């Protein structure tokens, strides 16, 4: 979990950062999870890896924002993906009962957040974690 979710982000960043520094421009958008913010029962490994992504995002943003590079993260709530298909029906029913919107999100509801962060409209967003989660977690 750490190798994929955290180390993968670190390695990708290490690969693209030199070119961004040379150009004095770039956008890095990391994918975290709301569980990286609040933790998750029986999800310690996943929560820790995603909390690490949020920490990496903040630390790197502090290091490189003065050089014109914007580093931010997206921490979605429960989204209907292949990963969620691995959950039990009991888990899904319990989770749905907790959700203020009484439904899971869909990928097309998260994508605009990435488009925004990649756009010039996000020019003052640095080191932030945006949370499309249907009111599941309110920070």
Verbal overview:
- Helices cover 50% and strands 10% of the residues.
- The chain contains five helices and three strands; from the N terminus they run H-E-H-H-E-H-H-E.
- It has helices spanning 2-23, 35-38, 44-64, 89-98, 107-118, and strands at residues 26-31, 69-74, 129-130.
- The chain has a three-stranded parallel beta sheet with strand order 1-2-3, with helices on both faces.
- Helix 1 packs parallel to helix 3.
- The chain is globular and about 50 Å long.
Summarize the structure.
This protein is mainly α and 139 residues long. 50% of the residues lie in helices and 10% in strands.
Instruction: Return the CATH topology.
Output: Rossmann fold
Q: How many β-strands, per DSSP?
A: 3
Order of helices and strands: HEHHEHHE
- The global form is globular
Query: How large is the share of residues in beta strands?
Result: 5-15%
The CATH architecture assignment turns out to be 3-Layer(aba) Sandwich
Q: Report, as a whole number of angstroms, the end-to-end distance.
A: 25 Å
Rounded Rg: 16 Å
Tally the helices: what do you get?
Answer: 5
CATH class label: Alpha Beta
Integer average pLDDT: 96
CATH superfamily: NAD(P)-binding Rossmann-like Domain
**Number of structural units classed as domains:** 1
Largest sheet: 3 strands, parallel
Q: What is the helix content?
A: 40-55%
Enumerate the strands of the largest sheet in spatial order, edge to edge or round the barrel.
Answer: 1-2-3
Low-confidence stretches: none
Structural class: mainly alpha
